[in-house]
Amino acid sequence: MSEETTEVLENETTEVGTPTKKAPKTIARLEEEGDIAADYLEGLLDIADLDGDIDIDVENDRASLAIVGGKLRHLVGQEGEVLDAIQELTRLAVQTATGDRSRLMLDIDGFRSGRRKELTALAEKMAEQAKTTGASIKLDPMNAFERKIIHDTIQTLGLSSESDGEDPNRFVVIYPA
Question: Is residue 54 within a helix (H) or strand (E), and if so which, with residue range?
Fold first, then answer.
């Protein structure tokens, strides 16, 4: 696969309702999603009369945006719930403009990057505990973003994990070697 494409594959439904695969999204397409999302977010910031700069990037096969500067903590919410809602609205704006589902990731005021560090440390600690005790470890419920960080870290450490339960109470179980 060339450097111009990524491995992002999304499901599409044919006229008879059977799933098919779409072509991988190109870097250019992901950058376009980032630009559309940035325009949408700039509009929201203007409406709310808030200052903030929007950084756009492509990482992990998705558009990634960060709003930095200004006093934006209230746009995150206590546990990121407002951030999650803004991210979903932004994804819908991109989908409306492009016709394709977006997997973009939004960070505001460094919340997700800080949370990523916390969760990586938690996964490392719990992996060590699973190795030491030989028992599986059940973590508290987490959203999809948080579970993915745990799963990725556990996989890097050579252990296995899986998600269990139903949203919003879905959680990760870490298994010893």
Answer: strand 53-59
Strands (E) located in 69-177: 105-108, 137-138, 160-164, 171-175
From CA 153, how far away is CA 122, in angstroms rounded? Answer: 10
What CA–CA distance (Å, rounded) separates 158 from 96?
40
Spatial distance between the Cα atoms of 16 and 62, rounded to a whole number of angstroms? 29
For residue 105, what are the β-bridge partners?
64
CA 123-126-128 angle, to 5 degrees, is 110
Assigned token pair, 177: 């070697």
11 has a pLDDT exceeding 60: no
In Å, how far from its chain's centre is CA 109?
16
The pLDDT tens digits for 15-72 are: 445 455 566 789 999 999 999 999 999 999 999 999 999 999 998 889 999 999 878 9
